[in-house]
Amino acid sequence: MDESYVLPPPATPPRRPPERSQQPVGAHFTTPQKRRPPRKDSAIVNRPGVALRQQRLKEELHALMETDEQSSNQSVPTSVDADIEMPDVEDTHDDGAEDLDPPAVDKSLPQDDSLPRRLLPDTATEKLYSTWLALVPTLVPAYLGYLQASQARIGQLPALRQWTCHSKVCLKKDYTILCLHSHYLESNIFQGCGCISVAQVLVKNGLFPTSPTSPRVAVSIDLLDFYFALFERSADAVSALASALKSIYQRRGFPILNEKGEPIQDPFRRGIGHAVQWYDCLRNRPEAMVESAIDECLRYIMSHPSSSEPAEGAASDAGSFLRRQQQEDTHGGGNDGGDIHVALDATFSQRHNISAGESPWFYEPKFFLSKEEVDAVGIRITAARKKPAHKHDSQVPEAALDQCEKSYQAADEKKEKTHGTKFDDTGLMALVCRHDIVLFLANVDTPGEQQKYGIALLERLFQHVPAEATVAAFYDIGCVLDRSIHAYDLLPETIVSRLIFATSVMHAYGHQWACQLVYNPRLREGLGLSEGEGTERVWSKFRKLIGVTRSSARSRRIWLLDRHAEAINIGARNELGNWIRSRLRHGVEGKTLAANTELGELGVSVGELRIQWEAQRKAQLSLRQHAPARLKKELDAVLNLQVELDAVEVSLGRLQTMVGTDEDHPIVHDYIASLKRTHTRTIQKVESLYSSLNVPQDFPELQGLPLEFVRILLMARDLKINIRKRAIGSFFEWDKLNRAAGGRDQPLGTKLHQQTQKAISKRTPALITAIRKFNKYCDELEALYEDDWGFPLPQALPTELGALRDEPDLLADVWISPVASNTPKWLEDSATRQGIRAMLTLDRCREERRRLGNEADNLCRWYGRELSGVELALRSPNFAEISFLLRQRKEELLLLQMLWRTPLVSALRFQFHTEEAVRIARHLSGSGDPRPIRWVHVPSFEEQMEATDGLYDPDSSAADEETVLAHDALDELFAYDDPDPADSAAVTPSPRGSAATVSEAVMLKRTLVLSDDSPEDMLVAVENPLPEASSPLVSQHTDRTLPATPHAIRFIIPAKDLQRLQRPCAQLSDDCINTGAQVLLRHIGTGSILGGDLAILSTRVMSMHRAEADDNSIWRDCYNTEFWRKNVWIIPIHHLVPSPHWTVAIVYMKEQQIAYFDSFASQDRWESDAAAVFQLVYKLHRLAEDYKHGPFQLDGDWVSYPLLKEPVQKNGYDCGVWVLACIAAILRGFHVVFLTSEQITEFRMRLFALVLTLTEPVNPVH
After folding, report:
1. Last residue of a domain, one of 827, 859, 881
2. N or C: which end of the chain has fewer CB within 10 A?
3. What stretch of H or E contains 439?
4. Residue 722 CB partners (closer than 8 Å, separation 6+)
5. Where does the record place the region Disordered (predicted)?
6. Are residues 279 and 381 in the same domain?
7. φ, ψ for residue 47 (rounded to 5)?
8. Between residues 95 and 1031, which one has the greater pLDDT?
9. Which among 248, 283, 318 is the end of a domain?
10. For 263-370, where are the alpha helices, taking DSSP H only?
11. Secondary structure of 162-225 in the HEC alphabet?
């Protein structure tokens, strides 16, 4: 045969005809196929030409490899190129490099797809990761600069900022980079050199490279941020984003083609996968810098206790971890309830395929325990179990604990819950607080749920909690773990003494009743309404990551899970206020009302119910109530022998009947003698076995009872335990399904909803059958029962699930010991059992209310401590680089106080902590500045004209601090409407465009500085500004008028407003303020005013300004004051929300200051009103110029400050009186007034008398 001949590939076999079972005539039984012959009968046939074909393929492959090496030596630099393809070990949806045009493959050559997939990273991948890890820290300054420039940015991206290197020795290189944005892509040229890499230039321009050294593609940072926000909620893979971008680009006319002009199938997936992974590493660094700065400042504050607020029961500083995870809420819920409630559980749905392989390390997880730490705990547990077990006096009988251990798979450490040969990581175990915030995670890499994971998580928790804090751990097998910890030295005594265990609520009902009496949180004192099911809710939030993480590399899987846990925690932290309000409203208040109603209907006193509950616990925790398994098995053997004995007796009777009188036959006598001997031996066996059971010794109460009665009794007891497990599980499934269908929980799809409902319906008949069998046992026991036994019989259960849910007997075990002459009420009276359940609900609600109050207090303290750390960091020059990030954190905290307000904590508490944080930071920093200056920029007319040609550039403003007032809020300042000459007191304004109206020297940049510090030379009036006066005898039921003067118009005060002024507890109206101010002005005069002449504007001016009234209306209301001639303006301000309140602003034109008086000293109200007054000043300035009454100078910066730092008003109705008192003090030559409550009441009476003196009736009666 010619050696050059190569066999063709085998032909495709023809299609096999369908079997009869697959034909459309119906299903039929088919003959099984014949088994293949064993291997020993098989013959090995060598195909000719195979060796030659393999040799030719190897030669072609060797030639290709030599060609690649030569081309790479000519064109590839020594450093790691960005175009190295990532190994297949990465996740198929977000791995790889960023080649837009992959190399063409010669399809004529045979392709070898049988190469094994690489499970470990190769050298090239390790080098690539090392290059990225070295590059990321160098990008932090550029990234911070971009974040600061893009903060609160509106509109398009700024122009590209190219780097120009002036050094003559740097080797410069231009890079043509394809930039991917959300709705378009473009190609730009960027230059890099030895001073700054091209990656740094890209980051400065808001782009992230897809390669560390020679990128050809860069992705918009804004697009990556959007992807991360979307991934937290949908877990869409990178492939989804890459495909979406490709579709958008094609629809917008940007097709992606290779060098041959052919469309690329998947151009962006690998590059975006790189960008996503390493950009997340970059954005973690500023977050870590902020956390580190706050931690350093908090440690400094803790080291100066004299400057910080009292601890108020707070234990100690638990470090950045507990500050970050909100685990400072040491609840203090009671001696037995634990200070901190946590839940731990494992899930085996978060597995990892072995075939996905591993990638190099690149991320330090925040929540995961290291494998070394967990394995060390496992080694210690194994060594401890080799020693003899300690004697532990448990409240729960060992027999009950043994049954609990057998009934739960989690208790079996050797049970394999996953396929060990397919998955290397088999699941996760989490430790969460009772607010569903993840504290720690452990990666499960064993087939079963071993105790080392839970113990390692608890050990890590105790490293962060205060030394005196106690912890209550909720675990589905908490009873078993509690016994193991006390039987062996699995944990140090310092931890064991402060650790209590409880079962989660839904898992508790699957435990033995004796176990529930100790570990069920609804029956145990001090645990409140904590249910311990937080891990289940956390796993539901992790569920969306299953498909992504299962096929990712192991390191990437940990990265994705860890980052998702942090996103879950941030959301849960923001919802803590809603959580407390919901738990208070639906949990405490709702259940308290229902329990009180039930107790009222039952008519049983709580004291009697407590006595019965203690008696029930004592009786049902007795060892007598738990028959050992040996006894039940041997009882079955005795009953089997009894059946055999009865059969022998029947046989003897039949034989004797058949034989009759024929006794002379020898065979008959032999049979009868043999049967009698067998019967005698059987009786002896039964008696010896029954005596070996030690029923009288183990259970003296059962002595003398028939074996049949004891057997049925024990069978009924075991069956009821099984019924309870099935029923509680069915209730839980139905509730979960109904909530999902209604949208309250994560909704199930229609098909999945129907499948789940069908599966539950299939399990329901088994539960009904078990109940019917139990009821049959009850009937049999009642038939065998005799009155002199004094034995309580079990009660039948309802077969309808709705009635079974409310059945109090469902949770109680079958009683297996007789009682005294009087049966306890808790055993025979259903009303007493219902009352005990209602009483326990009330107890748990009271504990929960107390715990919620402590948690709300701790939220306030955490808020105050965190804010004080941020305030101090803002004042520290060491953190100037991240000051804008600290300001963002401060704004987030200030928003938290709005989210965390609850009925248990008022807004005043948060306001106190806010002011205290500022005080602490100011004291420790030694700075007199109350906070970073915030500037309000009012654009000039010139700027307004320039804005029409392009967008306003905030970088061109001299005020480069935080912008508080947006430009769109000032549109009406430049809305120049033509006034009606008839409505403007015959004053004709000059044309808007005349040069005399607007001059560049006048219209300068105008800024307002908000300062907490008042002038040091401020004069305070501490005495009543009005002399004593007596009210004239006039009627107060008619309107009164203040006559006009040459410089003032007439004012009318209606009778109802006059009565408001007279009543001590009435709020003043607009007419009261306006008339009262004019009365004070005419009585005191303006000779003593500091600063010159004074103009008192009407209360309507500010109201119209805020309501965006037209210029004519404002001008008509204030032109008669001739404000443009006055140096001091008094502007009363009326607030309607959140409640009616009066304040006043005093504008000093020459000093360019705005003093603000608020009797409640509200910081937020001052900041809002100062900006509004500042706008009003410039609006009046413009109106005066329009009507040829100016101009007066407004150049330079303005300052606003509050006149009061502490509230002086003690009630809710004297705010208007305080405003008038302040106006009177200003007229008398002071800056502010400070009176006592008695003095302000006296001032009101004197002002009323003065009004009556200076006014006259509108229609006098003759």
Report:
1. 827
2. C
3. strand 438-444
4. 770
5. 1-118, 308-341
6. no
7. -75, 130
8. 1031
9. 283
10. 269-302, 319-325
11. CCCCCCCCCCCEEEEEEEECCCCEEEEEEEECCCCCHHHHHHHCCEEECCCCCCCEEEEHHHHH
Look up the domain containing 1057 and give its range: 1041-1257
DSSP 934: -
Each residue's pLDDT tens digit, 599-626: 888 888 888 888 888 887 877 776 544 5
In this structure, is residue 49 part of a structural domain?
Answer: no
**Is 540 in the same domain as 644?**
no
Query: In a 3-state reduction of DSSP, which class is residue 905?
Result: strand
Q: Residue holding tokens 């019967």? A: 679
Alpha-helix residue ranges (DSSP H) falling in 306-369: 319-325
Any domain includes 435: yes
Residue 314 lies in a domain: no
Encoded tokens for 112: 């070898």
| One domain, residues 418 and 360 | yes
H helices then E strands: how many in the chain?
39, 23
Tally of domains within the chain: 4
Tell me the chain's radius of gyration from C-alpha atoms: 43
SS3 call for 430: strand
Beta bridge partners of 1133: 1143
Query: Which residue in the block uniquely carries the two structure tokens 């050294």?
Result: 213
CATH code (residue 1106): 3.40.395.10
In a domain, residue 783? The reply is: yes
Do residue 718 and residue 676 come from a single domain?
yes
Burial level of 228, CB count in 10 A (0-12/13-18/19+)? middle
512, 370: one domain? yes
| DSSP code, position 586 | I
**All residues at 6 or more sequence positions from 1126 whose CB lies less than 8 Å from its CB, including other chains:** 1092, 1093, 1094, 1095, 1149
Collapsed DSSP state (helix, strand, coil) of residue 358: coil
The answer to whether residues 366 and 287 touch, using CB atoms and an 8 Å cutoff, is no
- 254, two tokens: 């940007």
Whole-model pTM: value is: 0.59
In this structure, the answer to whether residues 646 and 725 fall within a common structural domain is yes
Q: Three-class SS of residue 478?
A: helix
- pLDDT confidence band for 1016 (50 / 70 / 90): low
For residues 1219 and 1101, state if they share a domain: yes
pLDDT category at 756 given cuts 50, 70, 90 is: low
Higher pLDDT, 476 or 754: 476
Instruction: Tell me the HSE value of 523 on the side-chain side, using a 13 A CA sphere.
Output: 21
